[in-house]
Design brief:
Helices cover 28% and strands 29% of the residues. The chain is of the alpha+beta class. The strands form 2 sheets. Strands 1, 2, 3, 5, 6, 7, 10 and 11 form an 8-stranded mixed β-sheet that branches. It has a 5-stranded mixed β-sheet with strand order 4-13-12-8-9, with no helix packed on it. The protein is globular. The model has no long low-confidence stretch (mean pLDDT 96). The structure holds 2-oxoadipic acid (OOG) and magnesium ion (MG). 2-oxoadipic acid (OOG) binds at residues 68, 70-72, 76, 80, 113, 145, 147, 149, 161, 166-167, 243-244.
Length: 273
């Protein structure tokens, strides 16, 4: 049997905690953060719990479609009092199409945040330059992520949120696209695009793509670096969310949420009870 790096935790306990969190997702139940019960939970343990949780979803016919970076902006780090970038896995069941209806009742205490998405046209792995990372992007789009921590009051420490697949619950990618050529040719200043997330037409959060790790492509490079530490990489066709540019806002029934990113167009969701 393959030997896994499980930090301080046994594989059996990691399995148990992955199943517990998986049930919380399915039953929309919140729990106290794991680090109350297991103060010694390491980052390595946490990524193993995340991995086992994704295996449970895949066993239910779900499929991995990409990765998300989290806590890449100061605004997000401040909101959750955790100050280190993290990554999670995106699966097919999380995909929403732009303009679609999404329901608060399918979740615990959802929030939404403005993001930028990359769809890779080539695999990407290890230590890569900004140009190499950009050249691997088939398209660049406006996006939003719905996050829904399985922890009470959205309160967690770094290992907790990693084990909980970085709070991911759903995401939507806009239909407007730009390409690496737009960036290389100077038509799109990817490192400083205005981003506005509106609720019922009124701006609720405003920021710049510069807030995402200094530049969204730096977030993609950092993801590759972090994945390579665990012997992993990104595959052709995978979607990458670079991380929220602003703090997230509560997802409220009866509202329409829209994000516009300069040069990348709009993306929206209708929120029902
Ligand atoms: C953690 C997930 C952070 C982002 O874009 O920064 C995240 C959380 O805020 O619950 O998705
Ligand atoms: Mg996010």
């Amino acid at each position: 049997m393959a030997k896994h790096d499980t930090g301080s935790m046994t594989e059996t306990l990691a399995q148990e905690l992955a199943s517990e969190l998986d049930r919380n997702v399915l039953e929309r139940k919140e729990i106290d953060r794991l680090t109350i019960r297991y103060p010694a939970l390491s980052l390595s343990d946490a990524y193993r719990i995340q991995e086992l949780g994704i295996e449970l979803r895949v066993a239910r016919e779900d499929r991995v479609v990409g990765m998300k970076m989290g806590l890449t902006s100061k605004a997000k780090m401040r909101q959750v009092s955790v100050d280190s970038p993290i990554y999670g896995v995106l699966t097919r069941s999380m995909i929403l199409s732009s303009g679609a209806v999404t329901r608060v009742s399918e979740r615990i205490h959802p929030k939404i945040e403005p993001e930028i998405a990359f769809v890779l046209s080539k695999p990407l792995k290890g230590i890569v330059s900004a140009d190499e990372a950009l050249a691997a992007c088939g398209r660049i789009s406006a996006a939003m992520e719905i996050i829904d921590s399985r922890y009470r009051n959205f309160e967690f420490q770094l290992p907790d949120v990693i084990a909980d697949n970085c709070s991911s619950s759903g995401f939507v990618i806009g239909t407007g696209i730009a390409t690496p050529e737009d960036v290389f040719a100077g038509r799109l200043d990817l490192g400083n695009l205005g981003m506005v997330m509106s609720v019922d037409g009124k701006p609720a959060q405003m920021g710049s793509s510069a807030a995402i790790y200094g530049h969204p492509i730096e977030s993609l490079r950092e993801l590759c670096r972090m994945l390579s530490e665990r012997g992993k990489g990104l595959e052709k066709g995978q979607i990458v969310l670079a991380g929220g540019a602003t703090a997230a806002i509560e997802l409220k029934a009866g509202t329409k949420i829209e994000t516009e990113v300069q040069g990348l167009g709009k993306v929206s969701l209708e929120v029902h009870a």
